[in-house]
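retry 2 of 3: previous attempt timed out while embedding iron/sulfur cluster. Reduced batch size to 1 and resubmitted. Inputs unchanged:
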Amino acid sequence: MRERLDRGKRRLLLKEDQTWIGRPFEMDTKLRGVQANTRHLALMLRDSHIKHRASRAAAFAAKLLDGTLAKKTQGPVACAKGCYYCCKTYVSVTIPEILHLARAVRGQADKTARVIAAADQSKLIAQDQREKMRIVCPILADNVCSEYIPRPLVCRAVLSKSLDACLRIFEHNSGEMVPFADGTVDIRAYVVVMMQAALKLSGLSHVHFEMNQALAVALNHPDAEERWLSGEPLFAEVPVDTADLRPSGLSAMMDALIENVAPTL
Ligand code: SF4
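retry 2 succeeded.
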């Protein structure tokens, strides 16, 4: 690990970061846009004066993803309001995304009951089976996402080039890959890696969980965010997304980003 930058250099870096924070970024962990946004997220998550800093970090990451997708996604996208075929599959989320969503759902009795029922159903199914099963997301209402603004990162980035392919995949389990619009997979991967690196740099859990079960836990605890931020293992019973348990290109990217950003905090 490199030595920490001195205070003057850190201050200068933070000033320069303003050019990149919250703006569409270029995809390279060595580039300043990715580093500046990761640093911004880590500093937010470390700031104990911000009560809802986890939800706020999720909202920031969502906006960054939306802005970069809007600027850099190429080619036609078949997704449209009322199309919900992908809203029946396994949804993988970090805890800040869950806490952000829970803040919106809390107080809505019908929706909370749907989440708890979906969590009970999801609990009984292993991840590899769940990925093939079609359980309608409890947040879906009248064929649209009823929490469009705080929806998870993965939901924002599933932009398909073909409705026919989605029908085959999500209605008939064809086993094909979603024909994602050009650029979307990498853009989402970078935002996820930025969020995970910032969580790790803040001493918080950076792994993903199955959405229904994690959301049910958050809704069952009105003070879930404060308790999780204070180090309570509130989500310990929720199974971790198995993809996070294996070394991958994404974990290598996260480590490289942490190596670059850690000395600047
Ligand atoms: S949160 Fe919204 S977009 Fe995501 S799966 Fe559920 S209904 Fe669909």
